[in-house]
Amino acid sequence: MRAKWIGGFAAVVVVGAAAWAVYTTGASGRIFSLRRPNVLLISIDTLRADRLGAYGYARASTPHIDALAARGARFTQATTVAPLTLPAHASLLTGTFPTWHGIRDNGGFYLADDQVTLAEVLSANGYRTGGFVGAFVLDSRWGIAQGFDRYVDDFDLSRYDTTVGLDAVQRPAREVIDQTIRWIDGQDDRPFFAWVHLYDPHAPYEAPEPFRSSFARDLYGSYDAEVAATDAEVGRLL
Predict the structure, then answer these.
(1) 98: left (phi over 0), alpha (psi -120 to 50) or beta
(2) What is the pLDDT of residues 190-224, one digit of tens each?
(3) Among residues 106, 101, 191, which one has the least CA distance to residue 146?
């Protein structure tokens, strides 16, 4: 497994592959490989590096992410292109900056059809592609779902008051991971690319039990409980 950490404000990202592969590009631009691995991309919104055991946090309860970092590559110098979910993920999936892909904020901006995403590239090369997101700001209406055969963004907007901001509409990690596992279990013998986005460490800090009771109810304790709960769901998926 490979791990890539995007430190700071917007997200911590984990990239995994099930097997090593050797790639070459033909004259047509198509990618060929001797072995094509499954690819798993996990992005965790607002996950601080200094709340992970892999980065030296003594009170951490993140054994699954720490183990992934231990057997992969852990980056200590990495910066997100934007401290906002939609622009940062648009860059993550296109390999371009906001000044190029045009997404500068959450809501009101749309990824244009002429932008090429990682999902589109892998789909063109025989991969099944699935996206499973935990935040409404990554809803398919913003254009971020380009290239995915299956994109799960089932947000129940009726549960929220009309005055609630876009960033408050979310789905819990357990629901996102349940849907991801069902999709992966249903795949055929073709390789797959799965993007899993988890939003739980984002405010408000309302961790599920038993994590809520295991941490003090101050600001950082509540946040640590959310991080621990998210780590457990990452472990379940891996």
Answers:
(1) alpha
(2) 999 999 999 999 988 889 999 999 887 776 679 99
(3) 101
Q: Say how far apart CA 209 and CA 190 lie, in whole Å.
A: 38
Q: Each residue of 12-39: pLDDT tens digit?
A: 444 444 333 334 444 455 555 557 899 9
- Phi, psi values for residue 162, rounded to 5°: -65, -15
Whole-number Å distance between alpha carbons of 24 and 111: 29
Instruction: Check if the beta carbon of residue 226 is closer than 8 Å to that of residue 198.
Output: no
What type of residue sits at position 196?
A: V
Structure tokens at 37: 């691995």
User: On the CB side of 35, how many CA atoms lie within 13 Å of its CA?
Assistant: 8
Checking DSSP bridges between strand 31-33 and strand 23-25, what pairing results, if any? antiparallel
Q: Encode burial over 222-232: b for 16+ CB neighbours within 10 A, e otherwise.
A: bbbbbbbbbbb
CA 176 – CA 169 distance, rounded (Å): 14
> Cα dihedral sign for 122, 152, 230, 224?
positive
pTM of model > 0.90: no
Three-state SS for 91-149 is HHHHCCCHHHHCCCCCCCCCCCCCCCCHHHHHHHCCCEEEEECCEHHHCHHHCCCCCCC
